[in-house]
Amino acid sequence: MKLLRPVHRLALKLPDYEKFDLASQLRRASKSIPANVAEGYGKRRSSKQFRAYLENALGSTDEVIIHLEIALVLEYVIQEESQELIAQYRVVGKMLSRLIEKSHW
């Protein structure tokens, strides 16, 4: 949840013509990560079901990373800002991957 605010602030810096495209996708993907983890935890009737939600969260993590990389390549954001967020989302991805591996109970 700590990463939501910086991602949303970064999305506000994108050009107006990206507000309904890249900015929207970035915001939605960033919110999808904790939502999928929470929903999966709430519906953990089976490890397979929980794992599916975690895999969706991992996919959203990858989506945030690629959108941040796109914003950087298109020079919408400065490298330091986007690289720090990318690094943090990679950590989230590794954490989710480990949780997926251990979700067999």
Task: Outline the secondary-structure elements.
Blueprint: H1 4-12, H2 22-42, H3 47-73, H4 79-101
Helix pairs in contact: 1-2, 2-3, 3-4
Structural class call reads mainly alpha
Uncertain runs with pLDDT below 50, 5 residues or more?
none
Helix content: over 70%
Kindly provide the radius of gyration, computed on alpha-carbon positions and rounded to a whole number of angstroms. 15 Å
Whole-number tally of structural domains:
1
Indicate the CATH architecture.
Up-down Bundle
Q: How many strands, which pairing sense, and closed or not: the largest β-sheet? A: none
From the 3D structure, determine the CATH topology. de novo design (two linked rop proteins)
**SSE string, helix = H, strand = E?**
HHHH
Q: How many strand units?
A: 0
Proportion of β residues? under 5%
Q: DSSP helix count?
A: 4
CATH superfamily: 23S rRNA-intervening sequence
The outline comes out as elongated
| CATH class membership | Mainly Alpha
| Overall pLDDT score | 95
Distance between the termini: 26 Å
In short:
With 105 residues, this protein is mostly helical. The chain contains 4 helices and no strands. It is elongated.
